[in-house]
Amino acid sequence: MSENQPRKPLFYDPTERRIRSFVTRAGRLSIAQGRAIEELGPRFCVPYEKAVLDLDKTFERSAPTIFEIGFGMGETSAKISAGMPEKNFIGVEVHTPGVGSLLKLIGELSLSNQRIIQHDAVEVLTHMIAPNSLAGAHVFFPDPWHKARHNKRRLLQGPLVSLLASRIAPGGYLHCATDWEEYAQQILEVLSAEPTLKNTAEGYAPRPDYRPVTKFENRGIKLGHGVWDVVFVKV
């Protein structure tokens, strides 16, 4: 490959010997997002390190902690955090504009119960989150990788579900949502196969009140598109 040829994204991470479920892309950072990172990042962003995170110290209080994988631009995360001030929230996202957007919302809403880790969620869960320490986990609208040859790159597969389940305390929950029906079926099958998790419904669950309907989701519903929520509890 010549120096002038663009490099293809690396889906396979040779250092971790696994296929990543995301592609790191250079998004455009707005002035407001950049300012939020500069001003609020030092307080609300937690650096990644291979050491178990002291949740009480991180949030300066003891409270149930919810872990979210891939919060996008952070609108849903901010609304949920604002609606449940009695809980702590850790959001993990790899894309810088999303981090800046959520930090901006944290400032606008004066949130004190939200923290951000900009890193691969699998590594964060593996090295920073202690077993049985979470009250719940959210995975909303992960990339469906809808082409059959890309299905192996989907986030919600057996190994990650087992890892997530090990970090959730008994009685805690795992809540997933997708607008891709075939992926919803896979999620339901994978979670049902995890012996430490139990479905809260006969199949798909009603949307819990705490998960707001996004503008994108509302538009899809009006066009007749479905959204599927899957909620399991740790037994």
Automatic annotation (TrEMBL):
The keyword S-adenosyl-L-methionine applies. Keywords: Methyltransferase, S-adenosyl-L-methionine, Transferase, tRNA processing. It holds the Pfam family Methyltransf_4. Its EC number is 2.1.1.33. It comes from the Bacteria. One of its GO terms (cellular component) is tRNA methyltransferase complex. Pathway: tRNA modification; N(7)-methylguanine-tRNA biosynthesis. It catalyses: guanosine(46) in tRNA + S-adenosyl-L-methionine = N(7)-methylguanosine(46) in tRNA + S-adenosyl-L-homocysteine. Substrate binds at residues 147, 179, 214-217. S-adenosyl-L-methionine binds at residues 68, 93, 120, 143. Residues 149-154 are annotated as: Interaction with RNA. PROSITE patterns: SAM_MT_TRMB (PS51625). GO terms for molecular function: tRNA (guanine(46)-N7)-methyltransferase activity. Catalyzes the formation of N(7)-methylguanine at position 46 (m7G46) in tRNA. NCBIfam families: tRNA (guanosine(46)-N7)-methyltransferase TrmB (TIGR00091). PANTHER family: 3-DEOXY-D-MANNO-OCTULOSONIC-ACID TRANSFERASE/TRNA GUANINE-N 7 - -METHYLTRANSFERASE, PENTACOTRIPEPTIDE-REPEAT REGION OF PRORP DOMAIN-CONTAINING PROTEIN. Belongs to the class I-like SAM-binding methyltransferase superfamily. TrmB family. This is tRNA (guanine-N(7)-)-methyltransferase. It comes from Glaciimonas immobilis. The gene is trmB.
